[in-house]
Model the fold of this input.
Amino acid sequence: MYQHTIKLLIQEKIGSGTAGSVIANRISKLPSLKVLVLEAGEMVPLTSQVPLFPLNLALTKYNWNFTSVPSKTIAQGLKNRQHLTVAGKALGGTTVLNYNLFVRGNKRDYDNWAKHGATGWDWDNVFPYFLKVEDNQDYHVIRNVFQPPQGTINKGARWGALQAYINPVRGRRNLWILTSAFVHKILIHNKRAYGVEFEHKGKLYEAYAKHEVIVSAGVFNSPKLLMLSGIGPKRTLEKFDIPIVADLPVGRNFQEQPSTVGMTFGVKTFTYSAERVTVPYYNEFLVNGTGPLTALGAIETIGFVNSKYNDKPDWPDIEILWITLLDASDKGRVLRHVANLNEEYVTYNG
Done:
């Protein structure tokens, strides 16, 4: 690969996911700052705007396709006992292929963050200005006995970080957004980050930052990038012959929300099978922003409960999602693939 240098004195931004989009929007408000956003993914197709098909892009290049190592203790219903993690590789990050559910969470979570130093993240101040939140416009009659969930939807279409934070500011003269830009490492001298090395269309480039380099590459790629740059546990860096810049516990206490697919049951009622998604549905969605395609991925309702291990009854530790779909439909096959369900589970619950 040939190496090129971008001689810009900028505020560097790595990643345009949920957090990265917000940061890029806010720091580029200052006209004195020049901001470069480097995104490894691309712009998503218009099909991503349909809320009913949230996971379709999970089977494409717009997903990082992270896979866990085989487990010896859990994941018995999964192929090779491995978990697949959906993570958006695109402008807007995972908000381009998630279920668009607007779950406010628990008051104690936010107040606890603020208590530990995250100023402004308390329950009374946290909710964003730019997100559009609507009630689910189209849902199944079986949900009438529950409270329908809300979603980050605007006029029936997906409203994620891309629509809320990136698109409104793309015309700013001090903001550059480069897609298909995969950052290899942070450039560091005397323990100060002064730029990054990244790959774009088969060539290596360097971009220099006058002020700072902001890393918001997600829960997996952020610690990985730091360690590739020499910031991380000494033992790990030495194992991969990476020069040590700072011996820090990067990646320690990493946590992801564990989930499982429960037992399924059948009802004789309407389902969104491939045969029932018709051209009139698409026309209604495109023209009016209404109809079955605006449904939140067949999520009927959400509930929170306490496990026997939780001693704080007002701070639930389990979330339950009720999903309706036809197992034989495209949506059913996509869900099975994304969840990595093995044939034994599929046969037993089919």
Remarks:
- The mean pLDDT is 85.
- The first strand starts at residue 3 and ends at 14.
- The longest helix spans residues 218-228.
